[in-house]
Design a protein that fits this description.
single chain, alpha/beta, six-stranded mixed β-sheet, 365 residues
């Protein structure tokens, strides 16, 4: 797995421009009018990870295959979307399918680009987006709660358990708070996830700034960062315009381009790192002469489940994994050096995979 990130925001905040740049495609039409993205656009990018290149160089791998990140660009929300304004609910359902949601907020002034609310206020923009998602969640649960309560009273254990979770979420939504603020037990978390609530997703605020503010941000992005910190969310500063120019450059020219602007890395890297942090994702590697490949798993995943990301048969027939820490693989120049130095370990079913592990799975057919 990689992860799937939904991109939402008001019209004309640079959402589709950012999507095009991040995916280096022109799938989404970027234009200065609302609703230029009518159907959700989906794009995949390889997740940049310099560790993979280092491993491949040592193993002389013929192919390098990064893990994948999927972006879903969803049509611009407007005030009243949950009640059918703009494009209404037809696109809200697409958010249910993603792992995290990026709220793209306009943090730049430009008289040539209209704002649907006729003002520049990223916090208010975030409130509009969040409110529409909460209203949609509220409507969804209120349609279900009576039927669940009836089944619960009839003795249906599953309905009783789910009803208890719904009863925890509803008061929050009615108070104007997102579903992700619900306090849950470990047993309740799978039930909560099954509700597929829009505001249950972890969020990252993407501050779309002007070119001059790309390195240090500005007063708009500073306010967003304060809000993100208070909410235990993430925020990144990106200039969609710069990302568009960056995407069009030859790879060998990109480092110099970023350096000229005072930037250490592309916005894509920042967004991926924020997303991985929100979702507690880590990467492990498989390395050999044919290919060096990155695989994404959740922090805390045990070896058999990690093997299952490659193929379900690997998990079913898991015996053990040959495990080398990334630093050891690099320092000892590969698998043979690590084995000779006693740094290759045989790990069993209870082993919790760590970020950067180089693994080779043994399994029974």
């Amino acid at each position: 797995m990689g992860f799937k990130c939904g991109i939402v925001g008001l019209p004309n905040v640079g959402k589709s421009t950012l999507f095009n740049a991040l995916t280096q495609t022109a799938q989404a039409e970027a234009a200065n009018y609302p609703f230029c993205t009518i159907e959700p656009n989906v794009g995949e990018v390889g997740v940049p990870d310099p560790r993979l290149d280092g491993l491949a160089a040592i193993a002389k791998s013929a192919k390098i295959i990064p893990t994948r990140l999927t972006f879903v660009d969803i049509a611009g929300l407007v005030r009243g979307a949950s009640k059918g304004e703009g494009l209404g609910n037809q696109f809200l359902s697409h958010i249910r399918e993603v792992d995290a949601v990026a709220y793209v907020l306009r943090c730049f002034e430009d008289g040539d680009v209209t704002h649907v609310e006729n003002r520049i206020d990223p916090l208010s923009d975030a409130d509009i987006v969040e409110t529409e998602l909460m209203l949609s969640d509220l409507e969804s649960l209120e349609k279900r709660v009576n039927a669940l309560e009836k089944k619960a009273k009839q003795g249906d254990k599953d309905s009783k358990a789910l009803h208890a979770v719904v009863e925890k979420v509803l008061p929050l939504l009615r108070e104007g708070k997102p579903a992700r603020m619900t306090v849950l037990t470990d047993d309740e978390k799978p039930l909560f996830k099954s509700l597929q609530l829009l505001t249950a997703k972890p969020i990252v605020y993407v501050c779309n700034v002007d070119e001059a503010s790309a390195a240090a941000g500005n007063s708009f992005s500073g306010k967003v960062a304060e809000r993100a910190k208070a909410e235990n969310a993430a925020s990144v500063v990106i200039s969609a315009k710069i990302e568009s120019e960056f995407a069009g450059l030859a790879p060998e020219d990109r480092d110099a381009f970023l350096a000229d602007l005072g930037l250490k890395e592309a916005g894509l890297n920042q967004l991926i790192r924020a997303g991985y942090g929100l979702l507690d994702l880590i990467t492990y590697f498989t390395v050999g002469p044919k290919e060096a490949r990155a695989w994404t798993i959740t922090q805390g995943t045990k070896a058999p489940a990690a093997a299952g990301v490659i193929h379900s048969d690997f998990e079913k027939g898991f015996i053990r994994s040959e495990t080398i820490a990334y630093d050891d693989y690099i320092a000892l120049k590969g698998e043979a050096g690590a084995r000779d130095a006693g740094k290759m370990r045989l790990e069993g079913k209870e082993y919790v995979v760590k970020d950067g592990d180089v693994l080779h799975f043994r399994f029974a057919n």
